Amino acid sequence: MESLRAIFWKGAKRPFSNCRVLLFSLFIFARIPLLYLITGFLAMGYILRVGRLTQLGKWELPLWKDYLELFKNGFFGWLIVLIYFLPALAISLAIYFIWPDLGFPKFGLNILEMTNYFEALLGLLKGLGYPLIILWGWSYLMALYLIPCALLRYVQENKFSDAFKFKFLLKKTFSKNYSISWVILELTPALIITAISFFRDNYYTVVLSTSPIKYLFLIILYLVIAFKEYFVNVLAYSVYGTVLKGRD
């Protein structure tokens, strides 16, 4: 197998290999209210197709077609994600009912907000002890760690139950290349979102909030976030598809 550096570089170039696909992907990956109820499933289905083609050694960026198949795979893909996060969600609900002022954990925003939440959580749970914190953190991280492999296993076998064969998934994922790839691919979107949030919260609020071009800025920001979703996911499942290939 190629080195991880070569795989990441190859994966990073892949989103730009077809300009028509890239432009259409910006529309699909943009989280347009209401419309995202449909495009969200299509986006997930497309990413799974990217990963599956990579496992087959096909690096051409897939075209947007066979929308029913994309929607079906996307629907079951999101269902798999939800099921994997159920343990962490159950613990979060327990925490919420014990300390309603804390609220629910807010992920996907930026690193500073996540850090503040964890600090508050640690402070409130000192009286209860750390087992609940450890259990919640373990269940959340294990879900994040196994989901890419579970999704690719589902789309590979076209069988929903294969996404939950934990013995098989653990054997596939506990490898040096997968672990290193996972850490990098989890940190990348967090750092990008942190940079975007910092720019938005500081530059937009201070400079453009009263400017006539503020709406243009917001449109550009929306497109940047859509591109981030497209780029990071195509990169991630190009890498995962390569790392997990041939490890059955």
Would you kindly provide a brief summary of this structure?
The protein is mainly alpha-helical and 248 residues long.
List keywords for this structure.
mainly alpha; 75% helix; 248 residues; single chain; globular; 0% strand
Describe the protein:
There is one protein chain. It is built from 9 helices and no strands. By secondary structure, the protein is an all-alpha fold. It has one domain (4-243).
The number of strands is: 0
Share of helix among residues?
A: over 70%
Q: How many helical elements? A: 9
The gyration radius over C-alpha positions equals 19 Å
**What low-confidence regions span 5 or more consecutive residues with pLDDT below 50?**
none
Cα(first) to Cα(last) distance is 15 Å
Overall 3D shape: globular
Tell me about the biggest sheet? none
Q: How many discrete domains?
A: 1
Average pLDDT, rounded to a whole number, is 83
- Strand/helix succession: HHHHHHHHH
- Helix and strand content put the structural class at mainly alpha
Beta-strand percent range: under 5%
What is the topology?
Blueprint: H1 4-13, H2 19-29, H3 36-55, H4 67-98, H5 111-124, H6 131-157, H7 166-173, H8 176-208, H9 214-243
